[in-house]
Structure to design on (425 residues):
């Protein structure tokens, strides 16, 4: 997280003081480090270079056009889950020929849009979806490139709301089904089997699930080849964990150590769909204190960042480091411990829900009205999941590049929030 560091008690993003950005653009404000985005992408590109990887940046983690532009310029491809995400990639100038299209509910229009753009492959999640791809491809005189998404029944030990590779959740299919579908593809002139896909969950801090998955993938590729498929791709999805607390997030090379040998042994190319690994620690959410109060024996810091901005704490009980933008108290590595000069506080937002909080029982220095607060690790599934709940405009976003910065999304206006609603009078 070195792109976000305190210099003499004040938080900087690269060479720009964050408070200056908050004063210029207001709060809540997302502040991104371009250098972090590029460094993290390069770590993955380098770690997997031996298996000629296609890194499909997972657009869902952060779909801002400027972030997609940065990714495209640095040679990334994209993982999309909707026509909307594909549209964004095109608008950002991304190459569509290396796109992986995932998701359990692709519509005919989305399939057509993807085929028109010659994507690399659809990650197919069910037999009826395979049939639709075939039908739509036939109507366009095209061949639908597919990868079968396997549910490998591996427990990746993530939050129950973000696990995907366990039996019983809606994603993928078991091996028997994949084998049947592979036979179907062989007999279908409008389909071509390019690979297998597995996504195990998110975030995953241990390498063990990947090790198991790649081993299973290797076996399945062998079985598919024996059936007569010319199959060349293993797509292991995303899910690489990051440091939300201290430095618990492994480097991409740690995952590569267990993945690369299996992909090589299968004589395949590797596709990956990392989102959080690239964007997670690329941003902080800056908010401003409105009020403080003590009630029921508790200290509350009420600030203008809310669950409509960063939904992760409310939705997944997620932990985000949080610290004043300007303070004489040094931010400790482990902010969950007791800290001299700090008392525990709940940091809450203005939304009328008791799950509207950014942090609970968190040791914090004294805070006053107008102080700025930084919530760290906010780049993935932050602005991308933000909403207008309570009719709050979504925040502005700024991209910092060394000493320079650019507004990459302006704050919404109230008129924009209601722009699509029609009067019934
Ligand atoms: N590929 C597939 C098929 C996925 O379902 C996902 C995430 C990814 C790639 C990217 O995973 P990543 O590398 O970013 O971990 N909103 C939740 C996370 C939901 C993840 C959904 N799928 C959160 O805030 O933690």
């Amino acid at each position: 997280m070195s792109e976000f560091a305190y210099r003499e008690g004040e938080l900087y993003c690269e060479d720009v003081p964050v408070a200056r950005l908050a004063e210029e653009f207001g709060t809540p404000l997302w502040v991104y480090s371009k250098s972090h985005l590029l460094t993290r992408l390069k770590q993955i590109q380098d770690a997997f270079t031996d298996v000629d990887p296609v890194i499909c940046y997972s657009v869902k983690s952060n779909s801002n056009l400027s972030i997609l532009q940065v990714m495209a310029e640095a040679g990334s491809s994209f993982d999309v889950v909707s026509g909307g995400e594909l549209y964004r990639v095109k608008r950002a100038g991304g190459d569509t020929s290396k796109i992986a299209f995932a998701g359990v509910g692709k519509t005919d229009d989305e399939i057509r849009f993807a085929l028109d753009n010659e994507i690399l492959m659809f990650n197919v999640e069910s037999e009826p979806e395979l049939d639709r791809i075939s039908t739509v491809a036939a109507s366009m005189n095209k061949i639908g490139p597919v990868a079968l998404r396997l549910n490998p029944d591996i427990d990746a030990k993530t939050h129950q709301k973000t696990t995907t590779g366990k039996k019983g959740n809606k994603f993928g299919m078991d091996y028997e089904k994949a084998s049947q579908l592979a036979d179907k593809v062989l007999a279908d002139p409008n389909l071509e089997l390019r690979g297998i896909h597995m996504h195990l969950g998110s975030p995953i801090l241990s390498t063990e699930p990947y090790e198991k998955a790649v081993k299973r993938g290797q076996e399945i590729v062998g079985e598919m080849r024996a059936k007569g498929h010319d199959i060349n791709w293993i797509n292991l999805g995303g899910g690489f964990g990051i440091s939300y607390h201290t430095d618990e997030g492994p480097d991409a090379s740690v995952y590569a150590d267990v993945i690369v040998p299996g992909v090589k042994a299968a004589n395949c190319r590797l596709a990956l769909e990392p989102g959080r690994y690239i964007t997670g620690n690329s941003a902080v959410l800056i908010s401003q204190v409105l009020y403080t109060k003590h009630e029921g024996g508790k200290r509350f810091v009420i600030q203008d960042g809310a669950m409509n901005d960063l939904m992760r704490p409310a939705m997944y009980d997620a932990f985000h480091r949080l610290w004043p933008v300007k303070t004489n108290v040094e931010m400790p590595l482990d902010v969950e411990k007791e800290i001299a000069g700090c008392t525990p506080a709940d940091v809450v937002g203005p939304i009328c829900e008791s799950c509207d909080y950014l942090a609970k029982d968190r040791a914090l220095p004294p805070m006053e009205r107008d102080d700025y607060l930084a919530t760290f690790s906010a780049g993935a599934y932050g602005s991308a999941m933000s909403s207008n709940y309570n009719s709050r405009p979504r925040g502005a976003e700024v991209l910092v590049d060394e000493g320079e910065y650019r507004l990459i999304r302006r704050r919404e206006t109230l008129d924009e929030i209601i722009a699509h609603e029609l009067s019934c009078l």
